[in-house]
Amino acid sequence: MQTRSAAAHPAQRGGGLFSVLGAALARRRVYTRTLAELRELTDRELADLGISRLSIADVAREAAYGR
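Request: output the structure for the sequence above.
Response:
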C-alpha cells in the first residue's frame, strides 16, 4: 500500500508556486513602472522630490521591494 500526503501532489503545490510567481511579477511591474516614470521627469522635478538622477533605480527598487 502506498502512502502519500495530500500536500505532495504536484497540482496542489503548483498553486503556491503560481501565487509566489504572481507576486514576484507584480513587484517587478511596480519596479519597472516606477523606474520609467522617474526617468521621464526633468532634473528640476526630481530635485523638487529630493531625488537625484543617480538614485532613480534605488528609489524604484525601494518602492517595489522595500528596504
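The chain is about 70% helix and 0% strand.
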